[in-house]
Fold these 2 entries.
Entry 1:
Amino acid sequence: MAARGDLPQVADLIREVAAAELMPRFRNLSKDDVRQKRPNDFVTVADIASEQRLASGLAKILPGVPVVGEEAVEDDAALLELIGRPGEMCWVVDPLDGTANFAAGKATFAVIVALVADRRTIGGWIFDVPNGRMAIARAGQGVTLDGATVVGVPSGGSRSGFVGYRIRTAFERQFPVARRQSLGPVSTLRCAGIEYLEILAGRAGFSIYRRTKPWDHAAGALMLTEAGGGAVRFDGVDYGPAQSIDAGIIGAPSRQVLAEALGAFDMLEFPLSQPGDG
């Protein structure tokens, strides 16, 4: 069962942790409950409490499988090496995706969990905490959003896209709407997890990020692949959770839209991977 990422207890754990550690603190943080790890990169007491509780629960679901959590990596960057070990398994956890939104009282945040085996994501869970939406993917078994199977682009689905916050201005300047062919405008929710759910729901058609921290993208990339699309690096190679965080990611729920998005971004006059973009 674990080898297929088929672990129904994970969704229950995520809901339990969100209810116990995140929602009671939402719009209820003191000034001392929020700090900056670096400019524009926030952490709150809710992030820490959520990660600790998730790590404890996941250890019970799969004893002996290590947890690579965003906040734990902040203290010990060597944990990232666990994701790239051949033949090994690990959990990859974002205990509060969209921390800046959470700290500002904006109801756009999520919990993301992925299960990696032999450098591949085999299970993914994204929970929209304020709205209760849950997406679950298992490698080779499809993806569901609130229990309904998602396949390809829904009829009438949007071709708008999500672009990482720091590169949005550069992208719009160099690649105006008139040059995007069938692709639409871009925006950002500052929460990768919710953006993946919006793509699965048909309210957006693609996403692009320069920085590909595994806790932000491992689960969502699997979901787009299982929907019939995929996720690739900026060089066109398939995304993998152990890739360099500067390799970039372009994702879409159908191969056609993915090819269109990749082709469009190949037309840029300079690579999106320049330092300082996002």
Entry 2:
Amino acid sequence: MRGGEEMILDILKGVSVVQMALIFCGGFVVATAAAIILSRPYARRWIHGQRNANDMIGFSLQSFAALYGILLALLAVEAYQDFAAARDTVSKKALTMATLYHDIAGFPQPLRTALQQNLHDYATEAIQTHWPADPFAKAPDGPSPRLRAMLRRLLDFQPSTKSEELVHGEAFRQVNLLIEQRRYLLSSEENGIPAALWSVMALGAFLYMLFMCLFDMERHVHLLLGCLTALFLGAAVFLIAALDNPFRGGVTVDSAPIRAMRDNILKVGE
């Protein structure tokens, strides 16, 4: 049975960027403000009973913030690098389709038209696979039917000239490259930040709120400082969550390169 963290991450696949920002930033601010208001009487009685302990709490919070900040920074960099890699792979995939389309022009009819149709259909399949209408739809596990059909047609074809032999070998290479790119994009949808790291981030956010609740100062100052830092902390966690899945929820990779290639370049019968 999946853990609670994984279920929450699945739910985030169906929300927009604005909704996700409100969830994290607003949630952190509201939770921190509520915790400060509810804990003030107890903190004064248990911690600041004989003398004010703000200096010691501030020193501890500084040490904690440094370690937690490093963790958030590393995760943000990792999430952005994965997002950028997926975005580059989508662009390369569109270029591979264009290259394969021009290679297919070297085959005789009717094989040429059949391969062009397979490639055009695969572009549509790729859009539906990586950018599904249902954000909760499970990513396919098996191979692409269109790419398999192209491979079968290429295997059945016997080149009769040197030029056809060169085109045949290059087409095989491009189809195999499309298969590799497809597997990479599918894996990037599943291989986000592990649930264990999300648990550590949640623990760190809880400890931050705990530290903020321990201070003894005027109510409005306490709320203002707590909510401002909670807003920035929520924004940092939002950034990581938004970039964690490059195709569903939050900030997503644009499908425009493949759509443009399908609609403007991959013509059948030309």
